[in-house]
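Quick start: read one record
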Amino acid sequence: ASAAPTTAAPTTSRPVRDRPTRRPTQAPVTKTPTAPSSPTATKQDSGHTSVEEQVIALVNAERAKEGCGPVTGNSLLARAAQGHSDDMAARDFFDHTNPDGAGPGERVTATGYGWSTYGENIAMGQRTAEQVMESWMNSPGHRANILNCSFKELGVGLHTGDGGPYWTQVFGAR
């Protein structure tokens, strides 16, 4: 039996004045089983996979429609995103917070990315960049992260394999 692909409620940091540590707000996650599928990802010279580049291009097309500047790919955010996608697959969970209690802020900080704000979108089951972007753009919270003009950089992580694909977008600004 197959089910529709799913997304989880996005998470975004909340600006806190005069404090060096910021915590993300965590929205409830809706979980729906999905049909397994395996998109193909190939490495390009930029260090991003072609699927990652497609997601970034689609994000920038949506941002341009709303008058937002483009985001650029960032390898540290991509490392956080890929690590989370891989972790969700390996430990069979679908949430912004991993089973150890670490959330997006901890993952981004662990890469060495010095953020002033960040946001994370996750999804599971979509086979292509176009499908995952359609899912995110049809969800008000995910759409808000994509169209948040405060975000300047983006990392995309895609895990293909059993139970996936698992998608993670990590937006940031320094």
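The chain has one domain: 43-173.
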